[in-house]
Write a structure and sequence with these properties.
Layout (H helix, E strand, L loop, with lengths): L4 E4 L15 H14 L3 E5 L5 H9 L9 E7 L11 H8 L4 E7 L2 H8 L3 H18 L2 E7 L1 H7 L1 H13 L4 E6 L6 H12 L6 E5 L6 H10 L4 E4 L13 H11 L7 H4 L2 H11 L17 E2 L2 H9 L17 E2 L7 H10 L9 H16 L7 H12 L7 E10 L8 E10 L2 E9 L2 H13 L10 E9 L10 E8 L4 E8 L2 H22 L1
Parallel strand pairs: 1-2, 1-8, 2-3, 3-4, 4-5, 5-6, 6-7, 7-8, 9-10
Antiparallel strand pairs: 11-12, 12-13, 14-15, 15-16
Helix pairs in contact: 1-2, 1-12, 5-7, 6-7, 8-9, 13-14, 17-18
Length: 523
């Protein structure tokens, strides 16, 4: 099995993405997670560009990594100076990384227009920058910026820049598709030509502007590339970088390349979600391999088939990348979906049981009204248990009232909710204020119930989504509310639908509380 080295640049290239920013502490935690995943090189940043990256290289030395090397990123020296006097080069050395990666100009257009020097001078600054770094750093990697565009514009000069790097004794030369516009068939042909003239190990660094970054990286490996750069979740400038969450399992499972162990591969989804969390971004549920929907099945025919043979509709076993098969319940569902969900919830149900058909009809009727159970599996489990008659009624709400008051034009409205809740034979009448009517209702319900069920204090509301369903009624349209709640051990989704947003929210809130109490009773 041929070894492919993985080079992660989430902490540098990834932070150039819109809406992505990490604190120094976040970067340290991510580096540790990448090390656990089996990444060979972690590019920590550009120490010459900002104080945050300087702090990272200082702090990461205090952390013991099992496998990964820390790489610092920078550029070749400035024109009309020497490496010994170039502040960027010196800062790279002073950061004391395990490896240094610098980029240089490959495209003659950039040399003339961006650097405004002649082509020969550019070859000199590539060569002497790398040669100087090799005297001071154990491992030096050269990123040939805009290589593919440069090669297409002037192939002879593009190869000359690689030779200038090779003669400096660099350890690896990385071919970069910086603008992300190169096609896979172009990558293959160009790499074949390069390999005839360059003997040093080659790497690949691609961007996703043409939606080909992962494909280009895999094609490059197929044509002899041994070093692959990318980011977790494809974070990066513009349309992003090559997504290592797709590249790693493709290399390991599809191409038979040695890159991470089986155990490390099972951490892929955890790593993906961890970095989404630190970036404060909502995970892409449709992301290949690691997304929530990557192995989710909705159509009844699909579900029936995967229950017999998962490979009928799954290209790999999801457990290999730390994911799971999910069966969705919707108006497309058949009996097999209901049976599969029942099994998931440890509910005994017979395919011939009339209750199964009743549940199926209820689902289709409710989804026709606007309910959606794909993101609200807790509400679906409650629905199923009610139909089977095995759900304990922990409480019932006799009624509620919500009042919004705005006394002055320049003041925010105040919200107050009053609820009457019956637990056993006792009725509790409670009021509470909140930040908006739904928050007030949530506070009032909890205030009424927590004296009976103290465990509700550890339950939190993580997400609240409102969707106005197209009904052609304007402000009188039907509203769907999805709520994600959770405690220390799990998260669950509930749903409510009504032409009144408070009522829809109430339905989802009550389901969330009922589900928490049911889980605790069974655990």
């Amino acid at each position: 099995m041929k070894k492919v080295f993985l080079y992660d640049t989430t902490l540098r290239d990834g932070t150039q993405a819109e809406d992505v920013s990490f604190l120094v502490a976040d970067k340290i935690r991510i580096a540790q997670k990448l090390d656990e995943l089996g990444i060979d090189y972690i590019e920590g940043g550009w120490p010459g560009s900002n104080p945050k990256d300087i702090a990272f290289f200082k702090d990461v030395k205090k952390v013991k990594l099992r496998h990964a090397k820390i790489a610092a990123f920078g550029s070749t020296r400035r024109a009309k100076t020497t490496p010994a006097k170039d502040n960027n080069i010196q800062t790279l050395i002073q950061s004391s990384p395990d490896a240094v990666t610098i980029f240089g100009k490959t495209w003659d257009f950039h040399v003339k227009e961006a650097l405004r020097i002649n082509l020969e001078e550019n070859l000199e600054l590539i060569n002497d920058s790398l040669a100087y770094l090799k005297e001071h750093v154990a491992e030096v990697i050269y990123d040939a910026e805009h290589f593919f565009d440069g090669y297409k514009a002037n192939p002879d000069y593009a190869i000359q820049t690689l030779k200038a790097a090779e003669s400096a004794g660099v350890d690896c030369i990385v071919l970069c598709d910086t603008n992300g516009g190169t096609m896979p068939f172009e990558v293959a042909e160009i790499i074949k030509t390069v390999k005839k003239q360059i003997r040093k190990p080659l790497g690949i660094h691609t961007h996703n502007d043409s939606d080909c970054a992962v494909a280009n990286s895999l094609v490059a490996v197929e044509n002899g590339i041994v070093h692959v750069q990318g980011t977790i979740n494809g974070f990066g400038e513009r349309c992003g970088n090559a997504n290592l969450c797709s590249i790693i399992p493709a290399l390991k499972l599809k191409m038979g390349r040695d890159c991470v162990s089986d155990a490390q591969l099972q951490n892929l989804r955890i790593t993906s979600r961890y970095i989404y969390e630190l970036a404060n971004l909502v995970p892409n549920k449709h992301q290949p391999y690691v997304g929530n929907s990557a192995f989710a099945h909705k159509g009844g025919v699909h579900v029936s088939a995967i229950q017999r043979h998962p490979e009928t509709y799954e290209h790999i076993r999801p457990e290999k990348v730390g994911n799971v098969t999910r069966v969705l319940v919707s108006d497309l569902s058949g009996r097999s979906n209901i049976l599969a969900k029942a099994e998931q919830f440890n509910i005994n149900i017979d395919s011939k049981d009339p209750v199964t058909l009743e549940i199926l009809e209820d689902i289709k009727t409710m989804e026709n009204q606007g309910f959606q159970f794909e993101g609200a599996e807790a509400s679906f489990e409650l629905l199923m248990r009610r139909a089977l008659g095995n759900l304990k009624n922990f409480f019932s709400v006799i009624g509620f009232r919500v009042i919004d008051t705005k006394r002055h034009e320049d003041e925010m409205p105040s919200s107050e909710a009053t609820v009457q809740v019956k637990v056993g034979g006792k009725i509790e009448h409670t009021a509470a204020e909140g930040n908006g009517p739904v928050n007030a209702l949530d506070h009032a319900l909890r205030k009424a119930l927590e004296q009976f069920y103290p465990q509700l204090k550890e339950m939190k509301l993580f997400d609240y989504k409102v969707r106005v369903l197209p009904a052609g009624k304007g402000t009188a349209s039907v509203t769907r509310v999805l709520i994600e709640s959770g405690d220390k051990t799990a998260r669950w989704g509930t749903v409510g639908v009504s032409d009144n947003i408070i009522d829809a929210s109430y339905q989802a809130l009550v389901d969330a509380l009922q589900y928490k109490l049911m889980r605790d009773q069974e655990s």
